[in-house]
Design goal:
This protein has 25 helices and 23 strands. By secondary structure, the chain is an alpha/beta fold. A seven-stranded mixed sheet has the order 13-15-14-16-18-20-21, sandwiched between helices. It has a six-stranded mixed sheet with strand order 2-3-9-8-7-4. It has a three-stranded antiparallel sheet with strand order 12-6-23. α1 packs across α18, α2 packs across α5 and α4 runs antiparallel to α5. 45% of the residues are buried.
Length: 657
């Protein structure tokens, strides 16, 4: 019977409190056949394929080579090379690249890998020739579909070359590959571009092998290169910075090959190519043969690859964070999904009740798809046990931010850290607001009329208790965005749910015993002992909680700007209507924030409001406004000073597909 009552209580709590939209399930799945834009035009998967395109057939016919191709492919390719040496026809060069790629596919099907590499490498150099040779400048037409088809030939030839060159998809920047195939020899030198080191990654995967499942948008750009998933290699555990990077973290990388086409009769010649690895977060254009060329990028698949990591799912256990804050405490902290950058402003995202950083992934994925956002901002996430009172989590965040600063900027030289933006959903908005409060002794007076220095007990225990009730503004925080936040509490935190929560939520035993020891050792000292010894997250969100009036009266840092996003459902369900007009959990009267500089209403429920396009675009607007306040001058990132690649802040350069 006790088990049944517990299960019933858990069920009721689930229904009434509504989880924050995080759910289990795969973020991506393996494709049966990798994505390849040449599959349809070249019939790569057809039984009679692969086949060259109709346009290439016409080119062969025009040069009298169609019959030769049907009778002796090698002879036909040699004749085309000789013809190209005499007649620099873009149509013929494209045909040579396409024919070489098709022959590479045929050889690979037959298990002749050396021959396949030879054909892919030649297709790669010929497509490079078509795209960048100076003598084709006048005849090359970027509006011709053939131009994009040649870009696809370049990309897919490079990817197939890499797949065959690197056994088990292992690619090692910093090494040189010498590939001898038939009558040709290729030397491939690999180099890492930007701030990464050759040893920073443990392995690489091809994004074309995966299909996105959960993230709502896939953000890519079209250009040249092969998008990869680069899995980060952890550094030494003695490095204190390592604790801020989750295990199995993966980044987006684009591989690009600079190559010169071999001479038409250059049998036995050594062709040198440079394989480069770019960070699309800092460069989306590359200088090739005196042309600025956009990179082919995929920012979403590497993110989904990391989110699918079992270690990440284990760390972001939302139910444990709510029901068992004691065990979840071990995972608490600030987390970075990209390398710390002293030149970019942090945006710290704070989740709400029964939630984790997973809830932010759609917003994170969408926001960084805008070059003007990722150029100037870095995104961090805060994970905390959501079952504990929000003011305790606010205290811990304050301390964790201070510890982070000591690790990454001990001398206080990184100016962007003082322009930090906090974005909080639901209870996370309250935790974020409390970073800007100068409470004086207002919170302390809720529990006692006596001054803190008269509290008897172990000094360390006393200091810990007092610190949870005294707040000073964090000078690093300059803007706060709250989304679906119960600024005056939520009606769902009522007597029944609070009763159930006290039965289910397991607060840390040590913390409870410590507080009870101080309460017991100081009779008649505290006015509200229940708030100290029994309060959990549900208690803290009750509208009658004495915390809310004090929060509204408290002094806020005048330099901080607040913004608010609220949910107002146009067609609420029966249960959602119980909360009154609002998002189904937080009514509009509680969600409003009078001190906010801007406030936007969104037709969305409490669990998904921060995932909607309207809310995400509003956060983008606020972040751009913040940049204007911080620095009115436009700035273009130049890829760490390297003139060979750059970031262009053009929203049109980011395409969802």
């Amino acid at each position: 019977m006790g088990w049944a009552r517990t299960m019933l209580a858990a069920l009721m709590l689930t229904i009434l409190l509504v989880p924050s939209g995080c759910s289990s399930g795969r973020y991506l799945t393996n494709r049966r056949v990798r994505a390849n834009p040449l599959e349809a035009p070249l019939q790569l998967m057809a039984r009679q394929g692969p086949q060259v395109s109709e346009r290439t057939w016409n080119t062969l016919r025009r040069y009298g080579l169609r019959e030769t191709y049907n009778e002796d492919t090698s002879l036909c390719l040699d004749q085309i090379r000789s013809t190209v040496a005499q007649n620099r026809d873009a149509e013929l060069i494209h045909a040579l690249s396409e024919l070489s790629y098709v022959e590479g596919k045929k050889a690979e099907r037959q298990g002749r890998q050396s021959t396949a590499i030879n054909h892919y490498a030649f297709a790669l150099t010929q497509s490079y020739d078509y795209l960048f040779s100076e003598d084709l400048r006048e005849t090359r037409n970027q509006f011709d579909p053939q131009f994009r088809a040649t870009c696809d030939l370049y990309n897919e030839s490079l990817e197939d070359t890499l797949r065959l060159l690197c056994s088990e998809n292992r690619i090692k920047p910093g090494q040189t590959y010498r590939v001898k195939s038939g009558d040709r020899e290729f030397v491939v030198r690999t180099e890492m571009r930007g701030k990464w080191r050759n040893e920073d990654f443990a392995k690489y995967e091809f994004v074309s092998d995966f299909e996105i499942e959960k993230l709502r948008n896939r953000h890519t750009t079209y250009g040249l290169g092969v998008p990869l998933v680069a899995v980060r290699r952890p550094t030494e555990k003695s490095d204190p910075r390592e604790e801020y990077y989750p295990e199995g973290l993966s980044y987006a990388v684009t591989a690009l090959m600079r190559c010169e086409p071999p001479k038409a009769d250059g049998k036995g010649e050594v062709n040198t190519c440079v394989l480069e690895f770019f960070d699309p977060m800092t460069a989306n254009q590359v200088r090739l043969a005196d042309h600025w060329v956009p990179l082919e990028t995929d920012l979403t698949t590497p993110l989904a690859y990391f989110l699918d990591n079992p270690k990440f799912r284990e760390r972001n256990a939302e139910f444990e964070g709510l029901i068992n804050p004691a065990d979840a405490e071990k995972n608490r902290g600030l987390y970075m999904l990209e390398p710390y950058d002293p030149n970019r402003i942090p945006v710290l995202m704070v989740h709400g009740l029964w939630s984790s950083p997973r809830t932010w992934m759609d917003m994170f994925n969408d926001l960084r798809s805008f070059p003007e956002i990722r150029e100037r901002y870095q995104f961090w996430f805060y994970l905390y046990p959501s079952g504990q009172p929000f003011w305790l989590s606010a205290t811990q965040l304050r301390n964790d931010l201070a510890d982070m600063r000591k690790v990454f900027d001990p001398d206080g030289r990184d100016r962007p850290l003082d322009d930090m933006v906090l974005v909080g959903h639901s209870m996370g908005g309250l935790i974020s607001r409390m970073q800007t409060i100068d409470s004086g002794d207002d919170f302390w007076k809720i529990v006692s009329d006596q001054p803190p220095d008269k509290l008897k007990g172990d000094p360390e225990q006393r200091d810990k208790l007092v610190s949870t009730l005294y707040f000073k503004p964090n000078r690093s925080v300059s803007r706060v965005i709250t989304i679906g936040t119960p600024h005056k509490g939520s009606e769902f935190a009522n007597d029944f749910t609070r009763f159930v929560a006290r039965k289910l939520i397991k607060l840390p035993n040590l913390a409870v015993r410590t507080t009870e020891s101080l309460v017991g050792g100081n009779p008649d000292f505290f006015r509200d002992t229940e708030l100290l010894t029994m309060a959990n997250a549900i208690d803290s969100l009750a509208p009658e909680s004495p915390i809310f009036p004090v929060m509204h009266k408290a002094q806020y840092d005048k330099n901080v700007k607040f913004h608010n996003i609220v949910g107002i459902l146009e067609d609420p369900s029966f249960l959602q209507r119980r909360a009154g007009e609002g998002d189904g959990v937080v009514n509009i009267k509680s969600a409003e924030l009078p001190i906010a500089k801007s406030e936007l209403a969104v037709d969305a429920d409490h669990t998904t409001i921060h995932m909607t396009g309207k809310a995400i675009f509003e956060v983008r607007r606020i972040l751009l406004e913040h940049l204007n306040d911080v620095d009115a001058d436009d700035r273009v990132a130049d890829g760490n000073g390297d003139p060979a690649f750059r970031m262009v802040s053009d929203p049109e350069n980011s395409i969802s597909r």
